[in-house]
Design a protein that fits this description.
Layout (H helix, E strand, L loop, with lengths): L33 H21 L6 H18 L1
């Protein structure tokens, strides 16, 4: 008989919250979630900045400001 599959440990600081305004479920946050969430946020910031720098499109609110705001929101979520 196969061993039971272990439930994947999700990180509430990375997952989009199902609470009002998309906040993480703070009752589910454990100390072990912070470092992986910070690494994830850092990778997201670097990827978004690199995409902005490489873009040949003229800057607009949606392709510049919205991307930066979304990036900052992801960092704020962890910190």
């Amino acid at each position: 008989m196969p061993a039971k599959a272990r439930k994947k440990d999700t990180n509430p600081l990375i997952e989009d919250g199902k609470t009002p305004y998309g906040f993480p479920n703070l009752k589910a946050v454990k100390p072990r979630h912070f470092l992986p969430a910070l690494h994830h946020a850092g990778r997201t910031v670097r990827r978004n900045i690199n995409d902005l720098v490489r873009s040949t499109d003229p800057p607009t609110h949606s392709n510049l400001v919205d991307v930066i705001e979304h990036t900052v929101d992801r960092i704020d979520r962890v910190t």
